[in-house]
Design brief:
Structural class: alpha/beta
Strand content: 15-25%
Number of helices: 6
Strand order of the largest sheet: 3-4-2-1-5-6
Mean pLDDT: 84
Low-confidence stretches: 1-9
Helix content: 25-40%
Radius of gyration: 28 Å
Shape: elongated
Number of strands: 6
Distance between the termini: 79 Å
Order of helices and strands: EHHEEEHEHEHH
């Protein structure tokens, strides 16, 4: 369970939504159906804030087996959200991975064995939810300090300048 590398900013983190919500304690057995939308919004707000200026694109897939209709993928404060219409998030994630043109640029985030295996099968990086959260809440690596400028070469002093400096900075004779 290693943390995702801060590498290419075009990496997509494909997240199993409810799986990660359970892992971070934002969704439990006491969550009522009418409280699910509020819990999801709190989770997405937290995810957007925690992601901050980190490189990569966050894409969250939620189960929507009982959804009344399709909804397009939409952005929530920079986090892309998709509902798996009349299917599980696992099914939707597998389908997204099957058509992914650059699977090496995708990191699958889930504790679900089926989702993790689908990611590995396509050549994606795979992270457990805990590893992703560790990376997400860790302080981003500090930027390297700017390189020191090379000192500009000073022109050599002329004989007259050298004599003036020696006269100015030499102790007067006693």
């Amino acid at each position: 369970m290693s943390a995702p590398p801060d590498r290419n900013p075009v990496v997509t983190y494909l997240i199993d939504g409810y799986n990660l919500m359970h892992a971070v304690g934002m969704l439990g057995p006491g969550t009522r159906p009418n409280g699910l939308e509020a819990a999801r919004t709190r989770f997405l707000d937290w995810l957007a804030a925690a992601a901050g200026k980190r490189p990569g694109r966050l894409r969250v897939v939620f189960d929507a087996e009982k959804a009344p209709g399709r909804s397009p993928e939409a952005s929530h404060r920079g986090v892309w959200v998709r509902f798996a219409f009349r299917r599980t998030a696992d099914d939707e994630i597998e389908e997204l991975l099957a058509v992914e043109q650059k699977p090496a640029a995708v990191t699958v985030v889930s504790n679900d064995l089926r989702v993790r295996d689908a990611g590995r099968h396509r050549g994606c990086e795979v992270l457990a939810c805990e590893g992703f959260v560790d990376w997400l809440i860790a302080k981003p690596a500090a930027a390297a300090p700017p390189a020191a400028e090379e000192p500009k070469p000073l022109p050599e002093a002329t004989p007259d300048e050298m004599a003036a400096w020696l006269a100015a900075f030499t102790k007067p004779p006693k």
